[in-house]
Write a structure and sequence with these properties.
With about 200 residues, the chain is an alpha+beta fold. The protein is built from two helices and 13 strands, in the order ββββββαββββββαβ.
Length: about 200
């Protein structure tokens, strides 16, 4: 009987972990860390701040920011990547901004603005829905003849913009047969074949 030898290779040190990746700070962005480990990011589009766990260290050297974890514990590994991603999102938000577009797919589906922070949606219900949008988010709607209405959300806080977009999408989730509903622009929807009548 043949013997099989299995060799386990530890590739963790070779893998590119998100937390270990240095973050390049754009010239028009200023980042500061206070004594409470609160990170403040200022840019041309606004200012954001994030309180970082005291176990995580944020180092700024020149135009490079690094996030350091104290141990290899699972909790520290999770926070390492989390805070690095949050800071990266903040840098992108204050420098470039965040934009998410939603497409309304369905016969009679409409969108319009009722004031700067209220969005009115017609989604096939017995009444229209009026949704309050946080003032930190700029919202606009586009309705072109022969095309589906588009709702655009813009802001500097990626978490807030994403949360509002997910809330709007949940109002009429895409159904898999005809593809009707609210979807992200460019989202791929898996379709199901409908039942056919017996001949």
């Amino acid at each position: 009987m043949e013997k099989f030898c299995v060799t386990f290779i530890n590739t963790e040190s070779e893998m590119s972990r998100i937390g270990k990746l240095p973050l390049e700070i754009p010239q028009n962005v200023d980042i500061s860390v206070d004594k409470t480990n609160n990170v403040t990011v200022k840019g041309p589009k606004g200012t954001l701040s994030q309180l970082v766990d005291k176990d995580i260290t944020v180092n700024i050297e020149g135009s490079t920011l690094t996030v350091v974890r104290p141990t290899e514990q699972k909790r520290h590994k999770a926070m390492h990547g989390l805070y690095r991603s949050l800071i990266a999102n903040m840098v992108k938000g204050v420098s470039e901004g965040v934009k998410i577009q939603l497409e309304l797919v369905g016969v009679g589906y409409k969108s319009s603005l009722q004031g700067p922070h209220n969005l009115e949606l017609s989604l096939g219900f017995s009444h229209n829905l009026v949704i309050g949008i946080p003032p930190e988010i700029k919202i606009s709607t586009i309705t072109e003849k022969g095309k589906n209405p588009i709702v655009t959300l813009e802001g500097i806080d990626k978490q807030l913009v994403g949360q509002v977009a997910a809330k709007l999408r949940s109002l009429r989730e895409v159904e898999p047969y005809k593809g009707k509903g609210i979807r992200f622009v460019g989202e791929i929807v898996r379709r199901k074949a409908g039942k056919t009548s017996a001949k």
